[in-house]
Amino acid sequence: MTSAAEPAGEGRVLHTPMTAVYPEFPGKVAVVTGAARGMGARFTSALAARGVHVVGGDINAGQMSATAGELNATLATQALHEQPGTVVGAGVDVTKADEHEALAQLALERFGRLDFWVNNAGIFPFALVDEITPEQINATLSVNVEGVLFGAQAAARHLGPGGAIVNMSSVSAIRVRRGRGAYCTSKAAVAHLTESLAVELGDKGIRVNAIAPGYIDTEMTRWVREDPAALRHALDTVPLHRLGSPEEVVGPLLFLLSDSARYVTGHSIAVDGGSRHV
Ligand SMILES: NC(=O)c1ccc[n+]([C@@H]2O[C@H](COP(=O)([O-])OP(=O)(O)OC[C@H]3O[C@@H](n4cnc5c(N)ncnc54)[C@H](O)[C@@H]3O)[C@@H](O)[C@H]2O)c1
């Protein structure tokens, strides 16, 4: 992997594209949830640029369709190592198990196989612990935890040996964030669920790992950029003193899906500038 150096600064993020080549990727097929924007869209783009066909699912079906169209158009103009994969967008609500199965069927109908599944969709609600309503905790656990479980169940039905699942956990799985009690709980559950899935799906030769990002600059964390006190706190408490970019989570995702990680399962990789230690 190579990347051009760029100085870190006040709230700066590094968007410089990185190059990582995985010869085993072209022709493989992935499902990525929450792919309309943010990290899911960036993961989709990075996989397709390496020859992987991607079915991207998002609850925002209109934005998902637009993102798929934009990614296909952009990939067609780029000088890539590989013939790019095709991106297909679909509406999905990850809280509905049958909608995951529909994503899997779409991938099989369009591309004839399924190799990777990325459980990326998530929500990040704010409520102090003494104010969390039953609706908020249920919605958070439903999207962030059941969404991962149902995705993994669909993947387990269709992935063969060598298949790989990556779940999005968070540094919040191990570090408390004020006002994010429901979210932290859900991401701790994702980290542990990843381990349970790895143990049981190992019987099928399927690997299951998680990524635990820190502050990554997306719509989900736009409030950090827009609140000077929150940005100062973030920069003070991240040992690398800057936010991360979606681009910087791509490398760990590709590694975990690739044959380079074929003996890695049940693991959470922190991509947090070191913030889990502070
Ligand atoms: N951004 C960060 O700093 C950060 C840090 C740690 C973990 N994460 C996790 O990474 C993942 C991606 O985060 P992001 O920053 O790109 O977020 P984002 O808000 O930019 O994107 C999340 C996507 O998920 C979709 N989504 C939400 N609910 C859904 C549902 N029920 N069904 C299908 N799609 C749904 C949204 O429409 C959106 O497109 C999330 O799981 C998030 O919790 C993010």
From TrEMBL:
Pfam families per the UniProt record, alphabetical: adh_short_C2
Keyword Transmembrane: no
Residue span(s) of domain Ketoreductase: 28-214
Organism domain of life: Bacteria
Keywords: Oxidoreductase
DNA damage keyword on record: no
An example molecular function term from Gene Ontology annotations: oxidoreductase activity, acting on the CH-OH group of donors, NAD or NADP as acceptor
SUPFAM superfamilies given in the database record: NAD(P)-binding Rossmann-fold domains (SSF51735)
InterPro entries assigned: KR_dom, NAD(P)-bd_dom_sf, Sc_DH/Rdtase_CS, SDR_fam
Family per similarity comment: Belongs to the short-chain dehydrogenases/reductases (SDR) family.
Official protein name in the record: Oxidoreductase
